[in-house]
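Re: [ENG-882] Designed sequences occasionally contain unexpected residues at chain ends

Forwarding the minimal case from QA. Structure tokens:
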């Protein structure tokens, strides 16, 4: 991991490779991107984690907790 990445992804934020993308969630829940976006808009799932203007994705723990 680059030094700058280490600074960006500190204590509570995982490295980008450990986050789930929209495509990952669509495959997991077997839904389209349109449905996933609707769920986000309706607060059925939490919005993705952002770092500034860049969307990183969802932590696996966040999704596990949501499903419980």
């Amino acid at each position: 991991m680059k030094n700058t990445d280490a600074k960006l992804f500190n204590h509570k934020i995982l490295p980008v490779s450990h986050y789930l993308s929209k495509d990952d969630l669509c495959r997991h829940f077997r839904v389209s991107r349109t449905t996933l976006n609707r769920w986000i808009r309706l607060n059925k799932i939490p919005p993705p984690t952002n770092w500034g203007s860049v969307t990183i994705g969802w932590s696996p723990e966040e999704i596990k907790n949501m499903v419980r």
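QA comment: On inspection the terminal residues look reasonable. Residues 33-41 form the longest helix (9 residues). Proposing we downgrade this to a documentation issue.
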